Amino acid sequence: MQEAVSLLHNNQVMRGMAHIPLINQKEAPAVILLHGFTGSKLEPHRFFLNISRELEALGIASFRFDFLGSGESDGDFKDMTVLNELAEAETILDYVRSHPSIDNEKVIVLGFSMGGLVASLLAGDHPEKIEKLILLAPAGSMADEAKVMVKNSTYIKEECSFDIGGNLIGKDFIEELNTIDVWERAKRFKRDVLLIHGSNDQAVSIEDSMNYQEKCYQEQATLRIVNGADHTFNSYHWEKEVIQNICNFVK
To answer: Looking at residues 21-28, what average pLDDT do you find?
Structure first.
């Protein structure tokens, strides 16, 4: 069963979708999906929706929200920062864990791209609340990637923001990234982790997933490389491979 849901965070509304399996309406496991930079609760080729539908068929609930300033949620994108999204993810996590249809001991967090960075910080900060972690092309080195984006962008003085493909990125976003010790915070999570990355990802280097495995998770992490795949797994077969790996890990 799919239904629209909303959450209030700092007096702004985050809009999302909940998928609750009809075959298991009480104390179902749940997956929280966190979208990427400039993304939404759908993601390209309805990637997140397709993941949610496959999980629901397995009797697993899922929740996918637009962060503030993205998709259909309140707010402006220029006010987005990683730590703001982390705080929003904490609100989502608490909501899901308190949901009457969900087993709060079986909540899994999945993050894609910059959402993977946020997910890794969320799990590191709240390891006792998360059963497993799934990182899809996680942007652990977002600070370095942001420097490249800014270098190739136009600065809009009256907005105190950089124009990244029509999205305004505030200076706080860039400055804050340099203060976050990603690997140190992420490694506090000691449970099972699944990393999935395309071998031909031109947006986020596959080295980011390798760094998560080597610097943070080591034996507790499994890294799956999708041969030939780009950043958003833009083909039917790549998407199916990713979803199958997710389902196997969650089960």
So the answer is: 78
**pLDDT at residue 24 tops 90:** no
Residue 25 forms part of a structural domain:
yes
Position 35 in a domain = yes
Contact status, residue 37 vs residue 111, Cβ threshold 8 Å:
no
CA 50 to CA 186: how far, in whole Å? 27
Q: Number of structural domains, the chain?
A: 1
pLDDT (mean) for 49-71: 97
pTM, whole model, 2 decimals?
0.96
Residue 129 is part of a domain; what is its CATH number? 3.40.50.1820
Instruction: Collect all residues with Cβ–Cβ distance below 8 Å to 73 and sequence separation of at least 6.
Output: 12, 13, 14, 15, 65, 66, 67
Taking residue 214's Cβ as centre, other Cβ atoms within 10 Å add up to 13
Evaluate whether residue 154 is within a structural domain: no
